[in-house]
């Protein structure tokens, strides 16, 4: 049974959304693939939150790059990327998440993440429910 994990990745405040994405894609992901080897997930999907491309001037300590929202307050959106990882099973999941803490080259991955992210809470998703429109007869 496959296991899904969501990582909510928060950008460092000194980086623009473009710098964050570039670093994640061009530095962090190649290192992740290299270090993870056989433990790399079946899929590693990154969904970036769309944000304004230029900072907005405002008097709060909130992110100046406003999220593009369908509803609600853009200042409430603090996450910058929702990353979905899919693993074959719990053993595959365990081996992947032990990897960044292993001695040697694997320890670089966790350190490297500090170059673009301030935090990345990671959540196991077990039950996914989907509701689709009722077919018209």
Write the layout of secondary structure elements.
Elements: E1 3-11, H1 17-36, E2 43-48, E3 81-87, H2 90-98, H3 107-113, E4 117-119, E5 122-125
Antiparallel strand pairs: 1-3, 1-4, 1-5, 2-3
Report on the architecture of this protein.
It is flat and about 45 Å long. Strands 1, 2, 3, 4 and 5 form a five-stranded antiparallel β-sheet that branches. By secondary structure, it is an alpha+beta fold.
List keywords for this structure.
137 residues, alpha+beta, 5-stranded antiparallel β-sheet, 3 helices, flat
Report mean pLDDT, rounded to a whole number.
Answer: 89
Output the helix-strand order.
Answer: EHEEHHEE
- The end-to-end span amounts to 35 Å
Could you say which overall geometry the principal axes of the C-alpha atoms support? Answer: flat
Q: Count the helices. How many?
A: 3
Brief overview, please?
With 137 residues, the protein is α+β, with helices and mostly antiparallel strands.
